[in-house]
């Protein structure tokens, strides 16, 4: 059994999708980041970085429990555990390159674009422009990559598509100002529609919906989500 520490945000959603695709047995452990539950000692013992997602695999290597944190590490770990969604062996260099492109580029710049455009109490023009343009640049790279390819690795649907899907699902927040932000990226739009049509996506979107996560963006939430903005007491 896998314990899946979850909050309904892009990175945990990637893992939810892979778990649903593989059919691995798992149980959801809600962690309400707007209440600061990610900073509890019990969770920090699983992920010292205090971020979601994380998993504990009760049947890890050698049969011992294994913790894994960071969405890309979890995707790679579970794909290797099941031997699925990794593409062909000869494509592994490309797979790793694009997985880390998403992990170090698309994800962080998308997250910062959301933060400065929608969440920051002050919205400095330089930061808003910087992260919006970088998000658009990463979208343009994906758009080019998907030219003539059904999926990011080629013909095979892999963890690359699940990883990118988690963020492209939030394109309306990354690129606000349009009800149809993917119109400028027809290849991404076509790819996103194909991935979203998979039955596992519908199941992944239901993960955690039986839990009432906090929605308010109040002072408690700001301190929980952005603790480095506040001096230590």
Automatic annotation (TrEMBL):
Segment forming the signal sequence: none
Domain GST C-terminal: start-end pairs: 88-225
Protein name, as recorded: Glutathione S-transferase family protein
One Pfam family in the UniProt entry: GST_C_2
Keywords, alphabetical: Transferase
Any one GO molecular function term: transferase activity
Organism lineage: Bacteria, Pseudomonadati, Pseudomonadota, Alphaproteobacteria, Hyphomicrobiales
Domain (GST N-terminal) ranges: 1-86
Organism, as annotated: Xanthobacter tagetidis
Keyword Cell membrane attached: no
InterPro entries in UniProt: Glutathione-S-Trfase_C-like, Glutathione-S-Trfase_C_sf, Glutathione_S-Trfase, Glutathione_S-Trfase_N, Thioredoxin-like_sf
PROSITE patterns per the UniProt record, alphabetical: GST_CTER, GST_NTER
SUPFAM superfamilies associated with the record: GST C-terminal domain-like (SSF47616), Thioredoxin-like (SSF52833)
